[in-house]
Amino acid sequence: MTASGKIHGQWSSRLAFIIAASGSAIGLGNIWKFPYLLGENGGGAFVLVYLACVLGIGLPIMMAETLLGRRGRQNPINTMATLAGQAGASRIWRYAGWLGVLAGFLILSYYSVIAGWSMAYLFKMAGGFIDGASTETARQAFQELKDAPDRQLIWHTLFMGATVVIVSRGVSDGIEKVTRLMMPGLLLMLLLLDIHAVRTEGFAEGMSFLFKVDFDKLTGESLLIAMGQAFFSLGLGMGSIMVYGSYLPAHVSIARSSAIVAGLDTAVALLAGIAIFPVVFTHHLEPGMGPGLIFETLPLAFVQMPGGTLFGTVFFILAFFAAITSAIALIEPAVAWLSENAGLSRQRASAYAGSACWLLGVGTVLSFNRGSDLTLAGRNFFEFIDFLTADIMLPAGGLLVAIFAGWVMKREHSEEELEMGAWYCYWRPLIRYLAPAAVVIIFLHAMGLL
Ligand code: PHE
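Above: the input record for the complex with phenylalanine. Below: its predicted structure, written as tokens.
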């Protein structure tokens, strides 16, 4: 059942949706961010809190976002406005859609820069830059890249360009085709790296870092970071899943598909940790380096190990595949809005959204060099956008989705859309009470108010 006759595209099957949504979820968040956040927040306890956030907050909200999207069948802004109308609620709810489109836009601006670093490293590794190089050369390479705005800009431009080209080809010809091709490759490459990690000397130490729970290392802020990461990694709270849900054919089980996507995303984050930390410990390196973990620390390990060029190249192809299949999901809400509301062709809509996002990304490029002194709330431009989106806008967007689906929307409507029979009575209290309360409590706790 659709709320509006305007169908703006559709996945060819349930599998196509699952692959595309996994492509959106599995990204730099799993390969780059989760490992470094884990390193900074002390390992095991962070993993545990993260898993609790995915299950208790993330999964029910993912189902809610998908169901809102499929019922509204438009871009997130119009979907929220239409569904609010149906529920007899204020059209103010469309601003929840706006919040999402804006968050996606802000995230993509820096995401493209970091993805550009991955591309730079992919070419470096494939070109044999670590063959016979010293650890000092590997260490300097990252600093040199960060110091060179022009080189970063070239990669940022290439990455954003590729994103725009794919998205402009449409839902089934662009997004679906690319994700179908890349996601299986990504999983294969990750397994290869994991098999290698299992055979390293530091495997036991890596596993104990990942899975040994020590709650002393956990602070109020790290709880917020774990929750923000759950939203970021699942791709929630910003309309991506809502817009992907809007292309979902009727009668596909939302609960089952969401569980598969959330499960795959979590598995890939853990498998990335298992691929990275044993290698880091084998070479006696520091896991808590921050955003430079995969660009600075990991290449130091690649330099020292046999087959480093091969493993390094595979690792950065993997990061690139993960990044591009997420970037298309980040820009899709804005593209869908521009083409449905501003009457632009898909090509134009993608080009405009991509260009604006590119421009904002220049701020991130500069925050690693010339503009590093410019700070907002004690953070440079990149850190500020990351904090604002992952730790504030995504949880806030997710909270609004939970309130809307749990309290504003009529029960019959969500029940009809979810088609999950008796299981519905498990989802309902999660979306009405547990998920919203957890988001609010973690917020207040991080602000020192609780
Ligand atoms: N989930 C993606 C990642 O982990 C990023 C993303 C966030 C994609 C929000 C879509 C929406 O890298």
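Notes for the reader.
Confidence is low (pLDDT under 50) at residues 1-7.
Residues 10 and 249 are 7 Å apart (CA to CA).
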